[in-house]
């Protein structure tokens, strides 16, 4: 075995790909999947044949689709980045545009296929084998629609939130059909939809912040709107025990769920108000990074609420590679 260290050129090329993939952010997508999966499966999934394989397929599908979205985002933005962020891998020419386009579409396709495979591996007796494939295709389509069309318009934050909403539902897609849940809701229980919608609305607000990242003289109007939408998303997430079968699932914290969410929400909104008070690109970028990383804490909090403390700790551990990689890889 050779002891020759990797050349600076090869290390730099690896770093370019990690930056193109926004690798630290991918762990937030995995946290969504774990949370969604545990929300609908509870404790019995480890004893269910195919449970581990199903979770792995869902996590791989989510990670690949998310990574594809990051790659295609830079593919479609290459002309803008050539002016505003010329140091990035595509506008600088360190990674070829054609290769990045091919890679993005391939990751998107494989991710959607793995979502369908997850439905086939699930042995949950009342699960809907077709639902992971439907949600996976919808998620891939939403990612492509956002990157290629919608991010240029005012509806962009809603589209980004829709992607995160669908990602959470992908994690929940192998659960049983909700009692009295209509087919047009794909048989999701109202508590499941509210959790996914809360995470999605939170990301709508974060995306509203990110739209002003590269502007030097932006006002606070868009930031205030973003903070208000984030607050609405956090409130929706807090309220999930009040609808559907949420009360049966939130059995762990015995009234402490609201207190925990109040603490997390207060910390996040305090950071938002600090940026609103004196906005600048540097402050906005730092806040966005905090908001994105905090998705892991929100997912872990839901895991804790539904009685999955070991997994809540495990989800929090995803912050470690995020912080380590974040030293070299940007998140926005």
TrEMBL record:
GO terms for cellular component: membrane. Pfam families: UbiA. InterPro entries: Prenyltransferase_related, UbiA_prenyltransferase, UbiA_sf. The chain crosses the membrane at residues 20-40, 52-76, 97-122, 128-146, 166-187, 193-210, 222-243, 255-274, 286-305, 311-330. Its main location: membrane. It is found in: Membrane. GO terms for molecular function: transferase activity, transferring alkyl or aryl (other than methyl) groups. It is a multi-pass membrane protein. Keywords: Cell membrane, Membrane, Transmembrane, Transmembrane helix. Gene3D superfamilies: UbiA prenyltransferase (1.10.357.140). This is (S)-2,3-di-O-geranylgeranylglyceryl phosphate synthase. It comes from Lignipirellula cremea.
């Amino acid at each position: 075995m050779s002891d020759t260290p990797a050349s600076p050129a090869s290390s730099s090329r690896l770093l370019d790909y990690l930056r193109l993939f926004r690798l630290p952010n991918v762990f937030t997508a995995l946290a969504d999947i774990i949370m969604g999966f545990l929300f609908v499966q509870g404790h019995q999934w480890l004893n269910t044949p195919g449970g581990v394989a199903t979770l792995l397929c869902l996590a791989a599908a989510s990670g690949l689709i998310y990574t594809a979205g990051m790659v295609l985002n830079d593919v479609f933005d290459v002309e803008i980045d050539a002016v505003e962020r010329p140091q990035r891998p595509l506008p600088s020419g360190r990674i070829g545009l054609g290769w990045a386009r091919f890679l993005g579409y391939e990751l998107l396709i494989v991710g959607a296929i793995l979502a369908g495979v997850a439905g086939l591996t699930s042995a949950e007796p009342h699960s809907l084998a077709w639902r992971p494939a439907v949600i996976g295709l919808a998620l891939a389509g939403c990612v492509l629609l956002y990157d290629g069309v919608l991010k240029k318009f005012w509806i962009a934050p809603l589209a980004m939130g829709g992607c995160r909403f669908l990602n959470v539902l992908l994690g929940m897609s192998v659960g049983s059909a909700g009692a009295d849940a209509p087919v047009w809701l794909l048989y999701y229980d109202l508590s499941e939809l509210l959790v996914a919608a809360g995470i999605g609305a939170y990301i709508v607000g974060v995306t509203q912040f990110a739209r002003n990242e590269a502007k030097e003289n932006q006002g606070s109007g868009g930031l205030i709107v973003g903070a208000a939408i984030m607050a609405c998303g956090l409130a929706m997430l807090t309220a999930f025990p009040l609808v559907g079968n949420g009360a049966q699932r939130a059995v762990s914290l015995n009234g402490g769920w609201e207190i925990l969410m109040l603490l997390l929400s207060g910390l996040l909104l305090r950071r938002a108000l600090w940026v609103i008070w004196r906005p600048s690109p540097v402050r906005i970028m730092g806040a966005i990074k905090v908001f994105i990383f905090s998705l892991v804490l929100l997912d872990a909090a839901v895991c804790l609420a539904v009685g999955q403390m070991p997994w809540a700790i495990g989800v929090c551990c995803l912050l470690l590679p995020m912080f380590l990689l974040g030293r070299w890889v940007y998140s926005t």
